[in-house]
Amino acid sequence: MTCSKCGITNDPGTTYCITCGCKLEETVEAIQPEVLDYRQTYQPAYQQPVPGKGMAITSLIMGIVGLVIIFFGLPAGITGLILGIISKKKLNNADAPTGLALGGIITSIAAILFGGIFTIAMMVAIILPIMMNYA
Ligand SMILES: [Zn+2]
């Protein structure tokens, strides 16, 4: 083991340094707990869930569902837009990336637009023949 004072490498199992005479085991024991403490305090920070992230994913799914299944465009798009705005605020407060929430907002707005056009087209297609019959 290497001496922390003079840097000389001593034989394994030696308690005192051959050159300067300082205790070898004590210096090793003094450093190790600090390294363990550092790991224990910093590891849970990575595993903490980001608030609003799940909501941002739901918003994105809602937007995509609204775009793919145009019949659900309006209800899915409105739900996705609300969730997207709330999650963006939460992610901003947590200093987390807001890309997912922004994607959810954009796809939801697109779903509302397409869903809206689809709904109007459907209404026109249903109402127009009825009105033609009455005319
Ligand atoms: Zn030494």
Secondary structure layout plus pairing:
Elements: H1 24-47, H2 53-68, H3 73-93, H4 99-134
Helix pairs in contact: 2-3, 2-4, 3-4
This protein binds zinc ion.
Zinc ion (ZN) binds near residues 6 and 17.
* Unreliable residue runs: none
The kinds of small molecule bound in this structure are: zinc ion
Mean pLDDT: 84
Largest sheet: none
Q: Could you spell the SSE succession in H and E letters?
A: HHHH
Number of strands: 0
Query: What is the global morphology?
Result: rod-shaped
Structural class: mainly alpha
Helix count equals 4
Describe this structure in words.
It contains 4 helices and no strands. The protein is mostly helical and 135 residues long. The N and C termini lie far apart (101 Å). The structure holds zinc ion. The site of zinc ion (ZN) has 8 residues, from loops.
